[in-house]
Amino acid sequence: MLTKDQERLIEATAPVVAEHLETITSRFYPLMFSRYPEVAVLFNSAHQADGAQPRALAGAVLAYVQLRRDPARARQVLGTVVSKHVSLGIRPDQYPIVGECLMAAIGEVLGDAVTPEIADAWGALYEELAGLLIELEDHRYHEFAQRKGGWRGTRTFRIAATRQESAVIRSFVLAPVDAGPVADFAPGQYIGVRLTIDGTPVYRHYSLSASPNGESYRLSIKRESEGRVSRHLHDVLGVGDTLELLPPAGELTLVEGDAPLMLISGGVGQTPMLPLAAQALSQGREVVYLHAALDSEHHAFAGELAALKAAYPPLLTCGVAYERADAEDAEVDHVGRLDRALLARYLPAGAPHCYFVGPQGFMTAMDQALAALDVDADHRHYEHFGPSRPLDAR
Ligand SMILES: Cc1cc2nc3c(=O)[nH]c(=O)nc-3n(C[C@H](O)[C@H](O)[C@H](O)COP(=O)(O)OP(=O)(O)OC[C@H]3O[C@@H](n4cnc5c(N)ncnc54)[C@H](O)[C@@H]3O)c2cc1C
Ligand code: HEM
Q: The pTM is what?
């Protein structure tokens, strides 16, 4: 609990901390990784390289200065952080590590400006936020463990089947080694995967690309030419190999109600859209499914969409655009990128909820195009396949 004096000190010093956020962040991670190598493995080094994840953590502490005034909103906004943490199995005993290193980084960067009172105030703010995250995460861990087929921590799954979906995307069907039931998840959610490569544990997130079925999960993974985990999955692992899964999580889930949906994906961004489409259609909702692929070789899940279309002919409208097309691709609906004019042609009437996932540039373009088509911000839903960050237009 912060005292009034501590609140005043934090509000007074927040602008200085904000001004030095980049430097504080650039000190914080190396410090933490050298003092506590056991937590370093949880972080994706590619996310460290472009600065987005480091900024996110310290930025969230700073944003909490304002957010704490509205506790209900704080809980809602922190949902994306809680999801990322839960899918990585972050534990309460790891919070003091982050707190210690963050405070040490602030002290190093701001030097004598950080009086003991200021340090105490920021320490108390961190503890308050940590306490809230721990509570929210514990609730999720508990709820998932109680569910039929749920678990706590990691659970070992075996690759039961694989299927090449396009030139670069392969699906992996994962069944638990213990042969028990597998908990349902909310369509659109992702899961944390833990693998051991060259003796080191590595963690990644993958969207669950097939509807819940009580027996297995399906991940559909794009092989990144320089990617550590995706290449390991494509090039080294196969049917019979095992990996560990953490609980599913994620906020890109179906908004309740009967409003139509427009699901827009670029490349492997299609993975959360497939279960979302199936769920919405099963509820009798109208769905427009727009997908952008490089060309026919990179076009995954065409057969799956055709089967959905056959099952729900009046409800589902599909459109596919290839960025480049040759004679073999002549059948495709559109050639070129998805743009505002094309979205306008497909946008359903009746205040639709629009979901879009793909590369950052793609999502920014979709966000801007939908805004220009008067789709309100609270009807525009998206998720980054990496650290969350604002879209350029926002
Ligand atoms: C919520 C969520 C859902 C996701 N769903 C899916 C999904 O359904 N399917 C899917 O395929 N992916 C998905 N991802 C992405 C996935 O988690 C991985 O990021 C992806 O598979 C790449 O991992 P990797 O280990 O192969 O590549 P990494 O080794 O992490 O590298 C990624 C890229 O960064 C570059 N890079 C690596 N290290 C550095 C460095 N030090 N400096 C500069 N550049 C570097 C690499 O060259 C490569 O191009 C999702 C991510 C999130 C957060
Ligand atoms: C108050 C404390 C903390 C705050 C405010 C915080 C905030 C955040 C934020 C904002 C993100 C990015 C979320 C996103 O991309 O959507 C994140 C991701 C992450 N956090 Fe935390 N976090 C805290 C504590 C911790 C602790 C204790 C650990 C465990 C060591 C941890 C480990 C991670 C990891 C591994 C990621 C994903 C990193 C990646 O993408 O490589 N965090 N956190």
A: 0.95
